[in-house]
Amino acid sequence: MGAIWFASDLHLTAVEDAVFDRFSEFCGRVAADRAAALYLLGDVFEAWVGDDDDAPLALAVTQRLRALADAGVAIFITHGNRDFLIGADFAARAGARLLAEVEIIELAGRRVALLHGDTLCTDDVEYQAVRRQLRDPRWQQQFLAQPLAARRDFAAQARAQSAAHTAMAPAEIMDVNAGAVSALQADTGADWIIHGHTHRPAVHELGSGRRRIVLGDWPRAASWLCVDGEQATLAFEGTEVLV
Prior knowledge:
- It is built from 7 helices and 12 strands.
- By secondary structure, the chain is α/β, with parallel strands linked by helices.
């Protein structure tokens, strides 16, 4: 059985961009490894305005993922806070399966909880309020009924507002809440928690052999977790560490 790969927070914006080049190289690496599975844990795209998006980036990513799927790699996608509108049509074209908000898998004999990570940042009360609105099915239905151009304009405004909020908010509320992590671990019984979102790649010990593994963001550098048998390696900012 091949290795299992994880990545998140690519924040892809355009085909003509260095981050997309990193993504393409990464797909080649996963294919060459004859990987068993690739998990993308949210924010693959900087914004996703609907599965009818006809931008070159949407097509290019679909093609890269479909090529991996056709080569026998199982593709899984978690919704992020940027691309929560990825739907069944895109997943079908890409040969991927959409995951639950918290997905439990077995990995090398461990029980593992996978999620994007934004739900753990409970100290950011303003963000959590916005998140509840955007995840409301009625809001999503109304949004997706708008013309594509209007949705793109909204997404651009939302990105600007998010950047302003991030710049002004205290740094400590942008990270996970320890109580939220403890509650997730207790609810799921997970040995490992793997997530992204915070852009603070690291391996955190939770006690009794349990760990929280945080994936890095790709605009800074390519980042991934590769689990091959009993060996797990976290890559970020040009370094690789054993987990």
